[in-house]
Amino acid sequence: MKFSMKFDQISGQKYIAVNKRGFALLMDPIINKGSAFTNREREELDLHGLLPPVASTMQIQLDRTYENYSAKTNNLQKYIYLTGLHDRNETLYYRLLYEHIDEMMPIVYTPVVGDACCRFSHIFRRPRGIYISYQDRNHIEKNLINSGITNPSIIVVTDGERILGLGDQGIGGMGISIGKLCLYTLCAGVGPYSTLPITLDVGTDNEERLADTLYMGLRHKRIRGEEYQDFIDKFVAAVQKVFPSVILQWEDFLKANAIKQLARFRNKLCTFNDDIQGTAGVVVAGLFGALRITGKTMKDQRILVAGAGASAQGISDLIVSALMEDGFSKEEAIKRIWTVDSKGLVTKDRLNLEDFKATYAREVDEISTYQCHDRSHITIAEIIANIKPTVLIGTSGTPGTFSEEVVRAMAKVNERPIIFPLSNPTSKCECVPEDAIRWSEGRAIVATGSPFDPVFYNGKRYRIGQCNNAFIFPGIGLGLSVSRATRVTDGTFLESAKALAAQVTAQDISEGAVFPELKRIRECSKFVACATIRRAVKDGHADAEILENVEGTVEHAMWFPSYLPVRYEE
Fold first, then answer.
1. Catalytic: 180?
2. DSSP state of 146
3. Chain centre to alpha carbon of residue 240
4. Same fold, 105-269 and 277-467
5. Which residues contact 11 (CB under 8 A, 6 or more apart)?
6. What is the pLDDT of residue 1?
7. Architecture label for domain 105-269
8. What CATH architecture is 277-467?
9. CB atoms within 10 A of CB 308
């Protein structure tokens, strides 16, 4: 069905013009208002008899849907219910999420979306997005055209190999692409009719999925090497041809592929990787917030990163940029960061180090000065005792990495240790906030990747700020789309981090939280979008004319989930 947004020349009111009547309207989730179609609309659009006779208000619909949602007995059932609503009535879906954002955002995204991706082939109801399999490698343009979207603003694409901390989920990765785009709309007002989730199916190495009779993806091992890269190249070429102005976000690719594709295409189209760059932006924003509590500057920080994946690289690189802006040379900034992987502290004597690890690897001579029991296997607590980091960041995906010994070591060398256990879903978190606060005797500044309830310790309430990429990437996507930017730079994420940190209030700080409350996320996204636009103009990737009224332009562009009149026009 074709539809368009128009303005009534007499009243100035916005409305939706459609070219069909009757039952087809009720099947289109963008247009459908269900029982909220007015009597006038029912008459004009041939809907009488297709709906119960009494028109509902949106509030009545919200009460009804929330009652049904609340009746579900577990989180996966709630996810399935919300997915069904999403497929029927997008405006009501997003309004329900907006009204209950703290409760429902963890359902439609982390951590529950991880379970949904694992169960994707078992809970599949209705198609959404575009699936491009390796078998379709010579027909990718046709697949994209089949989406029915002529000019999408944002694509989120995954190949499903590294879904959150759950690994290879194959075709189930579509749940991540859908969920991510849901947050673009919920958190930044990017129009739901202009987003496109895509999954690239090149097979899976997950034996459980391959043995599952209900699995809906290709039943073979993953295509790799030159064949894989050729497929990715064809996909990007097709996107550039069919959707030349779209923003392409890479999501949940294996570390090596994520890094490679970002480097390969970042100077060819408007593209970024949220796992690498978005995570970095929100972490650096959290550090800026934490420094308001400690009273220190970025130049005072020494950072230990536990985990050496794509997100760790992005975080480390953006911290280097922040340190350089504070006066360090690049070499001096790099020396302020230590990395730990599954083999321990990353040092230069290791063979075949990846580029990222080689950049931040420590000299062997430095290690020889450490006081420890066994230099061949230095524990994280011993590393902390020797290098005295002010910041401990976890991206390891290994629960228990930040043990009591580790947290107490941080508390011993810092009055206010900054501890960010960021791995998600919750089951992968390096430590839970309650333990970090208790083991540090209430002195740790904690932010987590997954949502946690407030912690009460010695009569004080600690609100746990969520270091959630949703504070960064939706606003960046909105800003890129509004400004029609042609490229995304590292500076975009540093400016966005500053814009987000500026939204942390004195009340947030008093509660020990280094991020705003989730209910303010749309407001935060507006400021991130404005920062993104200003940086795009500064970098020469957007027209300077947009700066004449950047705040007003962004605010006007933000879609809000409320019903518009629907009219029939041939």
1. yes
2. T
3. 23
4. yes
5. none
6. 62
7. 3-Layer(aba) Sandwich (3.40)
8. 3-Layer(aba) Sandwich (3.40)
9. 23
